[in-house]
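Re: that chain you flagged

S.,

Sorry for the slow reply, it's been a week of failed gels. I finally had a moment to sit down with the sequence you sent. For the record, here it is as I used it:
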Amino acid sequence: MRHQGTVTLETRHLWLRRFEPLDAAAMYKNWASNPAVTQYLTWPTHAEVSVSQSVLDLWCSLYAKPDYYNWAIVLKTIEEPIGSIAAVDQNEAMDLVHMGYALGEPWWRQGLMTEALGEVIRFFFTAVGVRRIEARHDTRNPNSGKVMQKCGLRYEGTHRQSDRNNQGICDTAWYAMLADDYEALP
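Prediction finished late last night. Pasting the structure tokens below so you have them in one place:
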């Protein structure tokens, strides 16, 4: 892979950029403190803004690494982060990234996560040179799978009791797209 690090990307409605320490209040307010958002995630709902600040301090320290990819999803109309999207795992030997994302509840079902994931997919295939992008979701959260499908990821199967999140042990539906699939898109 030709690592670029977390570079700024832009879509019609969004900027995808590095987090900044000053984003803690928006992170807390817009998604991290909402149990509906964190229900199917692997990290707990933030009880106070200081938790968001600690997380951002860690994330910001990792931007020095050229293979670290973690974007703040910034809605242009309000100019503050409303979610996050990241390569939560990588396999250099396979040229593979595994995606994870979260979006504040007021912005659900507006196509914004599909817009963000689509741009990150483009970036990884065209700039970084990944061979495979994959993602998974708790089967009780089918809307996350709909985002993956709209972005062209293909369903590959369900792994029973294969993950743990804030609901406990769960089944996960796996999706992926290969570079060849991306190149064949119209």
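What I noticed first: Residues 28 and 99 are 21 Å apart (CA to CA).

Talk soon,
D.
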